[in-house]
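Quick question, first post here. What does this chain look like in 3D?
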Amino acid sequence: MPIRFNHTIVFARDKQRSADFLAELLALPEPQEAGALLAVTLDDGVTLDYAEPGIDFNSQHIAFLVTEEDFDGIFDRLRASGVRYWADPRKAHPGEINRNDDGRGVYFDDPGGHHFEVITRPYSCGS
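> Answer (accepted):
Ran it through. Tokens below.
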């Protein structure tokens, strides 16, 4: 069997709010309870399992590779939500997207403070 990514745990102050935010933004199925976790399932079966650890935690960066068509919908929902977004991880270009590697990308923070990125082409993949 090939080695494949299966899941990761994402800490949240409010797992319901954070999981719902991501599922709605990415147009994914509603989060499902998985014991003490809330699982957001991506199209390839990988899950982001939201947990409330009850401790302070550092923000994480999570990036999603999507189609151009999916990017359009995600970006429309992002703008409609009023969530701030940037073209870069340093937040130096607010209200913009990037066109790195002949694709499109956008950065935004979720309600829990994690830094998310949506891109249409992997970095350094060329034209």
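Residues 103 and 121 are 5 Å apart (CA to CA).
The chain has a mean pLDDT of 95.
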